[in-house]
């Protein structure tokens, strides 16, 4: 599937399993964060939308404005953290390398790369939207 040229209708009809749509203030800034820190693939990047691919998984970024007639944005705080309690995990990203890249971008490292008792080394990084992004690998 060519994610650069696929139409919205064909893309929507192709989705299966569990979908992840993330509302963000600035799609292009969020894409820059995800591609730099987690080395994701990003497609059809606009001010309002992007398709994100990571090891065969798909997620979508939408600007707040794309949900103009949807009730969900009424739940998002005007200021401050919008992603409290949400954690997005990238299981194939070296946590130490992700931490270094995040720090070079000025991102907030909530918890430095640490070996965990459940068999993973993880780093927790907050993006400017307040979502927790976790890079991890097996010990």
Quick take:
The chain is 22% helix and 33% strand.
Explained architecture:
This protein has one domain (8-138): 2,3-Dihydroxybiphenyl 1,2-Dioxygenase, domain 1. It starts with 7 loop residues before the first helix and ends with a strand. The strands form 2 sheets. Strands 1-4-3-2 form a 4-stranded mixed beta sheet, covered by helices on one side. It has a 4-stranded mixed beta sheet with strand order 5-8-7-6, covered by helices on one side. The chain has 3 helices and 8 strands, in the order H-E-H-E-E-E-E-H-E-E-E. It has 139 residues and is of the alpha/beta class. The longest helix is centred in the first third of the chain and has 12 residues, at 27-38.
Please describe the topology of this protein.
Blueprint: H1 8-14, E1 21-24, H2 27-38, E2 41-43, E3 49-54, E4 57-63, E5 87-90, H3 95-105, E6 108-115, E7 120-126, E8 132-138
Strand content is 25-35%
SSE run? HEHEEEEHEEE
Count of alpha and pi helical runs: 3
The CATH topology turns out to be: 2,3-Dihydroxybiphenyl 1,2-Dioxygenase, domain 1
Corresponding CATH superfamily: 2,3-Dihydroxybiphenyl 1,2-Dioxygenase, domain 1
Class by SSE composition = alpha/beta
The CATH C-level name is: Alpha Beta
**Which geometry do the CA atoms define?**
globular
């Amino acid at each position: 599937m060519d994610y650069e040229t696929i139409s919205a209708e064909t893309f929507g009809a192709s989705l299966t399993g569990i979908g992840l749509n993330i509302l963000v203030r600035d799609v292009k800034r969020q894409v820059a964060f995800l591609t730099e820190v987690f080395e994701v693939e990003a497609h059809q990047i606009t001010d309002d939308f992007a398709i994100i691919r990571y090891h065969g998984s798909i997620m979508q970024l939408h600007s707040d404005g794309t949900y103009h007639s949807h009730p969900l944005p009424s739940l998002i705080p005007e200021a401050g953290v919008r992603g409290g309690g949400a954690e997005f995990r990238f299981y194939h990203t070296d946590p130490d390398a992700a931490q270094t890249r995040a720090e070079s971008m000025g991102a907030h490292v909530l918890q430095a790369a640490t070996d965990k008792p459940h068999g993973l080394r993880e780093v927790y990084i907050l993006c400017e939207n307040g979502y927790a992004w976790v890079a991890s690998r097996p010990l």
